[in-house]
Design brief:
The structure is a homodimer of 627-residue chains. Chain A is α+β, with helices and mostly antiparallel strands. Chain A has 3 domains: 198 residues, Aldehyde Ferredoxin Oxidoreductase,  A, domain 1; 184 residues, Orthogonal Bundle (Aldehyde Ferredoxin Oxidoreductase Protein, subunit A, domain 2), CATH 1.10.569.10; 185 residues, Aldehyde Ferredoxin Oxidoreductase Protein, subunit A, domain 3 (Orthogonal Bundle). The first copy, chain A, has 23 helices and 18 strands. Chain A has a 6-stranded mixed beta sheet with strand order 2-1-6-3-4-5. A 6-stranded mixed beta sheet of chain A has the order 8-7-12-9-10-11. In chain A, strand 10 and strand 11 form a beta hairpin. Chain A is globular and about 60 Å long. The relative contact order of chain A is 0.12. The N terminus of chain A is likely disordered. Chains A and B meet through helix 19, helix 21 and helix 23 of A and helix 19, helix 21 and helix 23 of B.
């Protein structure tokens, strides 16, 4: 498990072909690592160069890629993450989803940076990766099991309680289009349907364990950042105290919290479902990812009326929104139960909740009836109905089979104008931040290669939630020469801010680094230098971000996506019913104009297709075609 | 003369109206300084906002602006410079020219950052600026004097030998279109005809003296850079040893040295006119600008056959090329004499030499005859003829009156296809680096708002002169994520490198800082922070560069310039006659393509007009129009 540090930063790719059971490892050199960084950068590279256009995402031809970055596994808060990617069964485009927990740190210590799984096993299998070796192991006995039991069984049969397990439950096995990959029972690589890819390959789990971490070029540089975080823990105090969603009441007031499928504004009972209430009523602990002092992950326990197993953690903000307010539900125990079920079955809480909200709006409008729902009164606010739907979706039973396809495909099947209720971009359901409040977020949803995603850009929302200033900025972008822009604006200056923030996030998703630790652009560059030995900079990071985003775009263009796919649902060009945004619809032309300026800034033409010159400039003109 | 440093960096503008003799001073605040930086940035701002489109550059409506930057006057090598700008009588567009010496440091110590001179004096005057005050003084007795006598007389009548004088000689008085402003007898703000603007205003000189330097935000930061330079003087050793032009023999071999009006390749006698020969045969000393340890300025003395006064310094590389090889002249004493004359008369050695070379080629082709030249046999290689022409140009006598208009206007008047011999872009004569050798330099000549200029970009030439690598790079741009590009290339990646280097230079011209001190991008940003207290960065510098270049572009667009004006003379699409480039013409379509990609990178449309969105993004949309 040697790694050469002289010659710079490098890594190893573990490749497992489940069709022929071939396992190989290949080195990736310093130049490659510096060019594509890691995480989503690696994923985009391998998908572009190895996955043929037009394949069925659930066929053996698709590949699933687990990619770490140079920061993954560092004993520093925020560095526990890795990315999982593939051609998405939900969007049909490129997908990637990041997750924390300890899996990434163990995979790195096992000697690897990338896992590429190809083909399809005849029978269920799992992978056992430890200290430079990988075995394909039989998993028939695990098939059908929930995630908690899967992990327990694997740890038990490998006789090592410290093994970390990435895995699917029944949702992944049943190819729910938005199945997640659970890393342990409560950390999800949630978005894009990565769990369905595992399911389609008969891959139940990837268990990892390792003992050696690669050397760091300049450990003093890393220590400096560790010290900084120690001294600035107040910046993440809200996460430590409450986990995600601490500003929930303010979110509702501002109009940021989606209510009843993004239709309504105002959710008076918001204070019944907050992280503060969770803390007071059901929280039994907080957990953290590897090496992270923040410990933002709620652990809840409920006995009555639902038994909620603390092994499955507790609901994040996105889950509270999606299974709660988006479904008109103010029953925090039901939300906690729903969170547990989604984690047990490995389905994405966001797409699950918004798909259920879609069905509820259909039901309220008589476009679905109790005949379709097996008698369930699928009304907004019906907590029991929500829980029932989760079960049905994970098992693809009854209407669950329809909703397991996601809201867009469900609407296509139902017809009758229900498309208006499918709140998605590129068929991926919107997360729990309201684009009518934040135009830059709306732009992010539109242009994100992975479909609507809460990890894109939320500069306006951060700003409106935590300050009262009229001008929006990214504080650490001021030294970069990026001036503030008015809150209501989505003009060129705001688009530049958006791009800067999107770049920061795509770099974090490549390093791979947690968005919750508020490192500045500069700190991220310095940390990269410290770990890799590269003399790098914020500017190089911006350039790499442009490269990676353009690679993702290339993949989607190849799959037939056009500028027309970069659009928000019609709902957002109408105001909310009541609430803070009851007179604030988005303006279609304004958003289209912003989109075009974003294309321009990226070096993409008016159709959103990367210019050949830009590809050449970024050194990725050779990645464009594959036959 | 107080300056507030709390609240950041700021400055003062001294405004002198020669028509009504009004003198005013105005503060410029921190926001303004950070947005436009100084030097060319300030010049572009004031020209855009105060000079009406379409005015005659030599009318009282034009303004001449002397602009320092935050670094000007610092006791650090390279910080002696300032910029002078106006609407150019040569190009009709924006002009700016930087110069070192001690003038800028004294003007800053007098309490000012910018001098704007407006209107026109009825009689010759000069300005006397000292410690926060400015007086308009009568100068009838100075009119007609050479620069050396002008400075001596002013120092004598103001009884202060330490006064620094910016001034014109007869060339400026006679409105030679490329008259320079001499700062002392041998430092020229040479390009763009700034001396003619002074002449048109009856402004003979600007004398300055001051005693107080504004405070520095972080003097340790500045000391760090001073120490670095002290320890790295070997990087500038060639300048210290020989002044400009040390690699002259290699330049000739590569094809970089223009021979006979850029027509020929190969100048076997190049070793007769090198700085090395000058050192051995006529150099009596080296001079430096304020606070600079490099001391790159040759001082020569010749007795026979020409008396060359050491007070006028000695020929720089550009002068050796323009009055030497470009005219086919290998007589180093004649070149030294020509340098002295140009400095005494205040005319730009480059445009002078290339205009004479133009005339020589016309003469050789029979398109000018001895009838036109008052009997002078104006052949390539005729040193006496070259010296005679300088006299005639400065006095606008005979053919000198024609050549004082520059080669483009002279060709227009002569007709008969002589346009082919006018080696200029935007009517400004090319400096002494061959675009056929360096495509990025050619692109620089094309798109530079000030016409062909040697200060733009010479990345390929630096590279070819000093290394043997196949790939061109800017070493300190590697950490910025800008990869090398092949030497022969002018594709997107090279255009990006060009833009990066152009940005570096425009920032240096705004700070104002000498191009000869090889500070990295990072050092320039750190130095800016140290002086101003701004938390700035390389990225902000790049952004400011984009802003300033776009402002210059806006000015030219307003004056009617189009993409068609961004073109090289036809000569360069043919190979040289003999020499290293005898089979290496430029390719027109390739250069046009590079130009279009540069426009794109700048946010200018295909016609080279800045997009409204880009103006808005850069916060300069309000600068576009003036009535």
């Amino acid at each position: 498990m040697e790694r050469k540090v002289p010659g710079g930063y490098n890594g190893r790719v573990l490749r497992v072909n489940l069709t022929n059971h071939k396992v190989t490892t290949d080195p990736i050199d310093d130049l490659f690592c510096r060019k594509y960084l890691g995480g989503v950068g690696f994923i985009a590279y391998y998908l572009l160069t190895e996955v043929r256009p037009g394949i069925d995402p659930l066929s053996p031809e698709n590949k699933i890629i687990f990619a770490l970055g140079p920061l993954t596994g560092l004993t520093l808060g925020g560095c526990a993450r890795h990315a999982v990617g593939a051609k998405s069964p939900l969007t049909g485009g490129i997908a990637k989803s990041e997750v924390g927990e300890y899996w990434g740190s163990q995979f790195k210590r096992a000697g690897f940076d990338v896992l590429i799984v190809e083909g399809k096993a005849e029978q269920p299998v799992y992978l056992w990766i430890h200290n430079g070796k990988a075995e394909i192991k039989e998993a028939l006995h695990l098939w059908g099991k929930n995630t908690k039991e899967t992990q327990e069984t694997i740890r038990s049969e490998l006789a090592d309680a410290k093994i970390r397990v990435a895995m699917i439950g029944p949702g992944g096995e049943n190819l729910v289009k938005y199945a997640s990959i659970m890393h342990g029972p409560f950390d999800a690589a949630g978005r894009g349907g990565m769990g369905a890819i595992m399911g389609s390959k008969n891959l139940k789990a990837v268990a990892v364990r390792g003992d050696s971490m690669p050397p760091i070029a300049n450990s003093d540089g890393v220590k400096k950042v560790i010290s900084w975080l120690k001294e600035n823990m107040d910046l993440v105090k809200a996460f430590s105290d409450f986990g995600t969603g601490a500003p929930m009441v303010r979110f509702e007031k501002l109009g940021n919290l989606p209510i009843r499928n993004f239709r309504d504004g105002g959710f008076p009972n918001v204070d019944m479902i907050t992280p503060q209430v969770i803390k007071e009523t059901m929280r039994v602990g907080m957990e953290g990812c590897f090496a992270c002092p923040v410990r933002c992950k709620k652990v809840v326990e409920v006995e009555d009326p639902y038994k909620v197993d603390r092994a499955y953690g507790g609901p994040e903000y996105e889950t509270i929104g999606a299974l709660g307010s988006a479904c008109g539900i103010d029953d925090v125990k039901a939300i906690a139960k729903g969170s547990e079920l989604c984690n047990a079955y490995s389905i994405d809480t966001i797409s699950t909740g918004v798909s259920i909200a879609f069905a509820m709006e259909c039901f309220e409008n008589g476009l679905l009836t109790t005949e379709d729902t097996h008698g369930v009164e699928l009304e907004f606010g019906n907590a029991e109905a929500m829980l029932k739907m989760i079960e049905l979706i994970a098992r693809r039973e009854g209407i669950g089979d329809l909703l397991a396809e996601g809201s867009a495909r469900a609407a296509e099947k139902i017809g009758k104008g229900t498309e208006a209720f499918a709140i998605q971009v590129k068929k991926q359901e919107l997360p729990m931040h309201e684009p009518r409040l934040s135009k830059s977020l709306g732009l992010g949803y539109m242009v994100n290669p992975h479909g609507a995603d809460h990890m894109d850009s939320m500069i306006d929302i951060f700003f409106s939630a935590f300050t009262e200033q009229p001008n929006v900025t990214i504080p650490d972008a001021i030294p970069l020469g990026l001036e503030p822009a008015p809150f209501e604006d989505i003009g060129p200056r705001k688009v530049v801010l958006f791009k800067a923030f999107q770049s920061k996030r795509i770099i974090a998703d490549s390093l791979v680094f947690c968005h919750f630790i508020p490192f500045s652009y500069r700190q991220m560059a310095e940390l990269t230098s410290a770990v890799t030995g590269w003399d790098t900079s914020v500017m190089e990071h911006f350039r790499i971000a442009e490269r990676i985003l353009t690679m993702c775009r290339l993949f989607n263009v190849r799959e037939g996506f056009t500028a027309a796919d970069d659009k928000l649902p019609a709902r957002f060009f109408e105001p909310t019913k009541g609430g803070a945004l009851s007179e604030k619809p988005l303006n279609f032309e304004q958003m289209e104009k912003a989109k075009r300026y974003y294309y321009f800034l990226m070096g993409w033409d008016e159709s959103g297709v990367p210019m050949n010159e830009k590809l050449e400039e970024l050194g990725i003109d050779h990645l464009g075609t594959i036959s």
